[in-house]
Specification:
It is a multi-pass membrane protein. The chain has 11 helices and 6 strands. It is of the alpha+beta class and 325 residues long. The protein has 2 domains: 19-201, no CATH class; 209-324, no CATH class. It is elongated.
Length: 325
């Protein structure tokens, strides 16, 4: 029985981040937000099971630490891989959990962490080595934060005279902690949306029919207009499917706009570029056609990974585009 009690958490914790390694999560911020939403829903269910115990805001600090470590860990996976990332943060997690429980939060003294690594300069590029060091460092930081998650709830359990209604049952503090996780994740996600101008990275498989009708969700191979100027190290960490391409709505020049039915109008005909969007079979298929190059089309079946492009033409531009609209 005791073995089963340990095996179930090991199974769930060990596989909770498998989707982050198996599926494209882009920059990971949207992934961590939806992950935290799932965490909070689980906490709400547990809270109902334990019959709504008292809510202690101090426990939310543990949730804040967890959410911060979680958003760091998403980036670590893309750099170090799932196996090395979990090894680093879990080891640091266990150490900090023991230290905070044995010495107390503010009584830690004389602890020194050293990390040494033997590298072969002839096989590894400097850029990759710097990325690996950054990834390992972030994994250790994330593990440190994870190791302090239960310190606030443990403090309340050990000082029941200061917190009326506090008991030793750890499940009573789950909802408060998970609320802190969701609130912190929401703050990070809000900052991310402001930085991205309300255009978060979402995999094409997740696009609904409505989202599939937005040109800003599709990319194509052309010389990027808005690619930020970055050095070699920063460029190596960019996502080729996201950072090296502009969305096809950049083909719509100033003076051209799209109405709610995806009809395109042009008031400035100096540049004849643009795309048209149309739904077929109800909303089961989205076609995006080039207005400048007849015969060029992109198709996508919403909420699936079935998409592609097709060109059936003679390679000539549509010079009559301005007169056709």
């Amino acid at each position: 029985m005791l073995i089963c009690v340990f095996c179930i958490p090991v199974l769930f914790f060990g596989s909770s981040l498998v989707p982050a390694a198996k599926y494209p999560v882009g920059d990971g911020v949207s992934f961590q937000f939806f992950l935290c939403v799932g965490v909070w829903i689980t906490g709400a269910i547990v809270n109902l099971i334990v019959k709504n115990p008292p809510f202690f805001p101090l426990v939310m600090i543990g949730g804040m630490l967890w959410a911060t470590g979680n958003i760091l860990f998403i980036y670590v996976i893309s750099i170090d891989g799932l196996d090395l990332s979990i090894l680093l943060w879990s080891t640091t997690n266990k150490f900090m959990g023991w230290a905070s429980g044995h010495f107390g939060w503010f009584d830690v003294s004389g602890i020194l962490l050293t990390v040494s690594e033997l590298t072969d300069s002839q096989r590894l590029l400097t850029v990759n080595m710097k990325k690996r060091i950054i990834g390992c460092s972030l994994a250790i930081v994330a593990g440190t934060l994870f190791g302090l998650v239960f310190t606030p709830s443990t403090y309340i359990q050990n000082h029941q005279d200061k917190y009326p209604g506090a008991i030793k049952n750890g499940l009573n503090y789950i909802f408060a902690m998970y609320t802190g996780i969701l609130l912190t994740s929401s703050v990070y996600y809000g900052i991310y949306l402001i930085f991205k101008r309300n255009r978060p990275y979402i995999c094409i498989e997740r696009l609904t029919a409505t989202e599939s009708g937005k040109l800003s969700n599709y990319f194509h191979f052309c010389e990027p207009i808005h690619l930020p100027k970055k050095g070699l190290i920063h460029r190596s960490a960019l996502d080729k499917s996201l950072h090296f391409l502009d969305t096809i709505d950049e083909d719509i020049p100033k003076g051209m706009f799209i109405n709610s039915e995806f009809h395109i109008y042009i008031s400035d005909t100096s540049i004849m570029l643009g795309w048209s969007v149309q739904f077929e079979r109800g909303s089961g298929l989205v076609q995006i056609r080039s207005l400048k190059w007849p015969g060029m089309a992109f198709f996508h079946i919403p909420e699936t990974n079935r998409y592609g492009s097709l060109y059936c033409g003679v390679g000539e531009e549509n010079k009559d585009l301005a007169f056709m609209l």
